[in-house]
# Entry
Amino acid sequence: MKFVDEFREPELISKAAEEIRHLAGTERHYCMMEVCGGHTHAIYRFGLKDILPENIELIHGPGCPVCVLPMGRIDDGLSIAQDENVIFAAFGDMMRVPGTLGSPLEHKARGMDVRIVYSPSDALKLARLNPEKHVMFFAIGFETTAPSTALTLMRAKAEGIRNFSVFCNHVTIIPAIRAILDSPDMRLDAFIGPGHVSTVIGCRPYEWIAKNAGKPIVISGFEPLDILQSVVMLLHQLKKGEAKVENQYKRVVPWEGNPAALRAMNEVFELRPYFEWRGLGFISQSALRLRDSYAQWDAEQRFSVPGIRVTDPKAAQCGEVLKGVLKPHQCKLFGRECTPERPVGALMVSSEGSCAAYFNYEHRKAMVTGLTSIA
Ligand code: SF4
# Structure
């Protein structure tokens, strides 16, 4: 199959759902975590939860980069841009993420020079066009987006562009999965592995999950049939008592990843000793920073950064939702104080955030159909 339509074909989806029902039986409960926010979005968008049997529980993982960024990092980035000579450049996803004194968009409304860019190289272009200003790119994302930041920094260095820097918040997926497996309140049988990240890192880094934690993992695509096929593959493994890494998304993910992208990352970045994740706390070697050879383009070295640590509002239960301990609608603020229009937590901002996905599909559906309780 090559085209999107084929992965949304109702007849094939019905067959896959039937196979899942058959394999799952009724005697046990299965908890599967979809690591990637893109999967969470697709599961709600296509109503996949409704066609899975009740004994298959999908738990939303930490794979939405906006959602795992602690508020203090947003405050730190915005504090640098208080300088009127600095342009704060970031992806559109970041613009409504709340910091202590408001989101980047709210700071823009108060006069800060905040620009939306579609890529790091757009931010570099901005630096070329505004030589009298300093452009700081607020970089977020997993290994999916880190290579394009790395290539942009390599270009900035090669061209000797000095009025450009990166405030680096790139994180890595494997330590986060490890932290989730170490969490005492976590009860998982298997993982639907992240498709986008794996195009860069490949499948091999997940092998320890299968070997050491004894959990099957299937790297999955994002169409309905991809996700259902991945569930089928996981059920086959679980029923046979196996735990191995499989690649459902072979049409996009090479087993060894993308060596050129990995080389670029290795040239520019090194691992931080530790980094704070929203909801998961400090995780060692889970994020990237610029190597000393790129210090001139490192916003954290060029500017004074307050290193603000901020706890989320007390009633916000983003941490529990991020770890899959609570469902989005079980947060006390969900749908009342916290909505996509007025988000309190980051999980309600990005379309890949589990609260936003749940609100936009399940919650609205419940409101339309007049259901009062949603599971
Ligand atoms: S509803 Fe809002 S505050 Fe509650 S977990 Fe979701 S994003 Fe966080």
Confidence is low (pLDDT under 50) at residues 371-375. The first helix runs from residue 10 to 24. The domain at 71-170+272-302 is CATH 3.40.50.11740 (Rossmann fold).
